[in-house]
Every structure is written in structure tokens, then in C-alpha cells.
Amino acid sequence: MIQSSSMGFATTPKSPKASSRLVHAIPHKWHRSTKFRFSGDAVCHFCQRPLGFGFLNAWEKCRSCKWKVHTQCKGRVGDSCGLTPDHLRFLFDKLIQENNGLGMWKDPQSVPGSRSMNEPAFQFPDTAIDSSSSTNSSAPSTPALPAGITGNVTSLTAPYRSERKFLFPDTESYSGHNRVPILVISEGDHPSTSEIQMETENHNRTASLSGKIESEGTIVGNQEDLSGSQDTDAEVPPSQEAVDKFNKRAEGGFTWERHAWNMSTIRGPNAQASWNEVTIQFETIEFDKSAPIIGRGRFGKVLRGYHYGDVAVKVYNMDHISDVSKRAEEFKLEVSAYKNTRHDNIALFLGYFMSDGKYGMVMSLSRGSQSLYNLLHGAREKLDLATVRKLAQQICQAVSYLHTKKIIHKDLRTKNILLENKNKVVITDFGILSMKRLAYPKWKSGYYTSKYWTNNIAPEIALHLRAEYDEYECDDFPFSENSDVYSFGCVWFEMLTGSMVYSTELPHQMIFAKCQGIRPVLPNVKCTQELKELLVSCWNTVPQERPTLSDINSKLTAIPKKQRVNRSPSFPVMMKSYESTF
Ligand SMILES: Nc1ncnc2c1ncn2[C@@H]1O[C@H](COP(=O)(O)OP(=O)(O)OP(=O)(O)O)[C@@H](O)[C@H]1O
């Protein structure tokens, strides 16, 4: 087993089976686009000749590793976007030899030439940031991490954010992809006003967020937050164009929410009525003026309100859609996932509103008013096995229900799991995450993510992170039911151990580990071997080999609860009744 160290991956193999854990079998998923593609000066990754452009382009692209190759070169690039067996053997030997695994961070280029090392995985150090990090053979073997990054995890406690920089493929040969992707990670729980504004001013944008962080996930806001026009936009069903776009995305195989649409809801004669049924006029919602804001997230803020009872009002930031006239349609596509959900462990959607510049939805207010994240990391509560099992089952049931509705959560984290009470969770924030949202405000390249976003993403998602943010491919990320299962495994782990998966590693290290097929380390948790195996199977590097959530739920239900042991009492017991002795 590969064990984690504070810096990277410790490497004491405990069994001869260890190497099998490193298997990184992500076969290429070639697809030929039928869309008009302008490839500019892009070249075939194999032969380095131009790809050409047009409708009938003779090149194909791998959905997993994003390689673009001529159709005739396809057969020559090998059958895996991951590591070659030779490379894996080499890496594994190296990990063992170097005892604590740090060596693999020191000199990635010392690994013998291999397509997969040079290209799908990123490399340190960053040439653009630190000259000592040259990728040529004269590069020093000492770690030369980019500015702002240290190997010491205590840097995570630095205020708000630092720029995490990692370099994906070989910059020289990866023409057009040679910029460094940047993850701006909230080091606090959420970016504060000034931090958001600082970033947005940098990009000539304005942010409407205001307030100061009071505690985890809780922000005291200004009253202006509630002001603004309360005119409601004309409620119209999404246009044909929007529906087609949505379906096209879905044909990419990753966004299936289209099935959640009842055709009469979209186009049928009842479309207007259907949307009207779930429309709430913004002005009919009353807000708690003294403490309106429950919390603020990456995509908006949550307010405490009153609408025929206590409600939570989630106001979304739609600035990532630059064309203002398209925001309403995009927003409807996002909330459509909520419209059709009715499950005891899913936040109850009550309606949505679209005011002038305000987009949001009204949900039932979670009584507990705290997330599972708060419970585990704020209150530092230790959950007993029975509670973990119960909550895990509820999460499984809720997310597998979403899957039956063809909705992919995409962002399953303990922050998005609210506690009604200690025995009941409700899932929220599903289907909202998009790379387009994470890539806003747009800048050179990179993403703004929540602090622990990287921990729970599946390896196939990590493999898709690129320096070059491509607006037209941003929805091409392979989110799937299987990636939800991976994230579920992380949540389950968190409930069992009280800490995040890969908790000692920096985001770029986590991404590297995921790209290398290295799974989270399971510490000595007190649960049966059967449960451990089930948990680890959620992290299978081959997405299709992960169990489904309904399978997991069935197994959790089937595993017998700990039998009560009839111990002999420590005090004398009258075995026979008084009368019987006579
Ligand atoms: N229905 C609800 N009832 C009560 N509180 C809620 C509800 N929905 C969200 N919250 C709380 O509002 C706060 C902000 O939630 P939001 O989903 O916007 O961000 P987040 O999940 O905390 O952060 P991130 O950006 O990492 O997703 C959180 O503290 C969350 O617990």
C-alpha cells in the first residue's frame, strides 16, 4: 500500500499487490467531432503536423487526455492515456527506493521518456515562475516549487488564497497548451468582499458580493445585498436554441440532465404554465433584516427568508455568462435539475425567481442550519460507526435518486450536505457546478475553486484540467455517475476519519496523485474489511469499475449491524426466582 506523507506519497509497500494499485488504465476515448472546428495552429500530438480545420477534419480527440491526433496516427499512440507499464514500473521502483516518495516531485524529467509522463501529468517546477525549474535535463533535482507554494502544508493556513500553479503537459511539444493553469483556492472558507473585488477589479469586472466573514460559511452582509430591482423578468420557457445546446452537451456523454426534462415542460403546450408554477415573485419573499445571510459560496449566497414559512433563498451569480440576454435561459437550465426532484434527503426546491439581475431559488431551510463539513471540521464531532452508516446510506439514496433522474451532482462534498439533525442529511448544490463557472472571472488561465474542491474530484476530472481554458470544451469534463461515486467515497471517508482525503497534500499534489492513479490512503479506521473494500472500490481509477450508489446502498443495508454481545453481567444475578428455590 502506498502511504501518504505530509508532503507527498510515502512509499512503504506492504504487500506484493501494491503495484496493482498504481494501475492507471484510462483508455483513450477517441471521438471525431462533426462540428466545424477551427484548430488554428494546433498540431497532431503524435506527428506534430498541423491538424487542419473544417467540418471534415481527419483528426480525432481523446475525451480523457484531450490528445488530438490525425486519424491515421491514432493507431500509433498506444491504447492508454495513462502511464505505460514500463513507466509505472519505473515510478514504482523509484518510489520504493526513495523511501518517502519526495523524489518523484524533485525531478519528474528524470523519468525515462514516455509519452504519458511528459504529457498528461503536469510537471514541477514551473518554468514560467521559477527559473530554477527548467524542464531541460540540466534542471536541478531539488524541489523548486512555484512562488507562493511551499512543501510545508502549513502554508494552507495563509490568509485567503495563494496561487497554486502546476504545469500539465510538456510545454514545448504541447503547442497551444503551454500556459500554466492556476487554481485560486479560498484558504478561508469563502473569499471575502475585498478579495473578490481585488480579483474582479484586476479583470475589469465588478462583483456585487459584500460583507465580511464572520465564521465558517457565514457572512454578515450589507443591506444592499437585498436591494436592487425587484422587477421580475418575463417568464418564458427556454428557447429551442438553449434546449438544443443543452442536448448537444448531453450528447457529449457527461451532462444528462436533459432526461430530467419532461418534454411538455420544455416545449409542450404546458411549458409556460409549468414554469409559472415554480416561479416565486422576488418581492413576495421577506428577508430577515438583522441577519439575512446564512452563508456565501463560490457561486452565490444563501439568505434566510420568509415565504409562507422559513425558507433559504439562494441567489446565484450569473456573471460567468457574458451575454446578459442568455443568463435567464442558462439559469433555467441549471434550476431545471431541482424542479423535478422530490426526495426526503434532497433539499426541497420551492421555486425560483429571476429579477432584474437577480437569479435564485427558494429552498426549504435546513433546520440544523449547518453542514456536515461544519459538524466534522468546525465542531470536530466524531461520528460513531452506526451514524456514519446511516448518513452514508441517506447520501447514497439521495444521489442515486438523482442518478435515476439523470442528474449528476458534480460537486458532492460535505459542505453541500446539510444536517437536519444528527440523523438526517439533505443534499444540496447539485448539477450547478460547471467549469465555466469555475473559470470566471476570466483571466489568463485557471480556475477559482472552493478550498476543498480538489480533494473530492475524480481522477478523470483531474486529468482534464488544462492550462489552456477552452470555453467551448469546458462542459466536456467527464462528470458522470461514476465521478459522483468517487466523491461519495471521499465523503464517506471524511465521516469515518474526520479528515479529508489527501488532507496533507497541496492541491497540485492531489491532482498529480490522482492523475497518477494513486488512491487516498485509508488509515486504520474501525470498520469491517468488507466496508473498507467497498469504500476503496469507490476510488477505482477506472470509472466504470466503481460500484453504483444503489449497489453501495444495498451492500450497506445487507452488511449485518454489529451483533449485540450478551456479556455476563458483572453483578450477581438471581438465576432462579425466589419461589423456585423452594
Ligand atoms: N437550504 C439551506 N438551509 C440552511 N442553510 C443552507 C441551505 N443551503 C445552504 N445553506 C448554507 O449556506 C451556506 C452557503 O452555502 P453555499 O452552498 O452557497 O456554499 P458552500 O457550499 O458553503 O461553499 P462552496 O462554495 O464551497 O460550495 C453554507 O453554510 C450552507 O450550509
Automatic annotation (TrEMBL):
Pfam families: PK_Tyr_Ser-Thr. Residues 288-559 form the Protein kinase domain. Residues 109-151, 222-241 are annotated as: Disordered. CDD domains: C1. Residues 27-81 form the Phorbol-ester/DAG-type domain. ATP binds at K314. GO terms for biological process: meiotic cell cycle; nematode larval development; positive regulation of vulval development; Ras protein signal transduction. Residues 222-231 have a biased composition (Polar residues). Residues 131-144 have a biased composition (Low complexity). SUPFAM superfamilies: Cysteine-rich domain, Protein kinase-like (PK-like). GO terms for molecular function: ATP binding; protein kinase activity; zinc ion binding. InterPro entries: C1-like_sf, Kinase-like_dom_sf, PKC_DAG/PE, Prot_kinase_dom, Protein_kinase_ATP_BS, Ser-Thr/Tyr_kinase_cat_dom, Ser_Thr_protein_kinase, Tyr_kinase_AS. GO terms for cellular component: cytoplasm. Keywords: ATP-binding, Meiosis, Metal-binding, Nucleotide-binding, Zinc, Zinc-finger. Belongs to the protein kinase superfamily. TKL Ser/Thr protein kinase family. This is Protein kinase domain-containing protein. It comes from Caenorhabditis tropicalis.
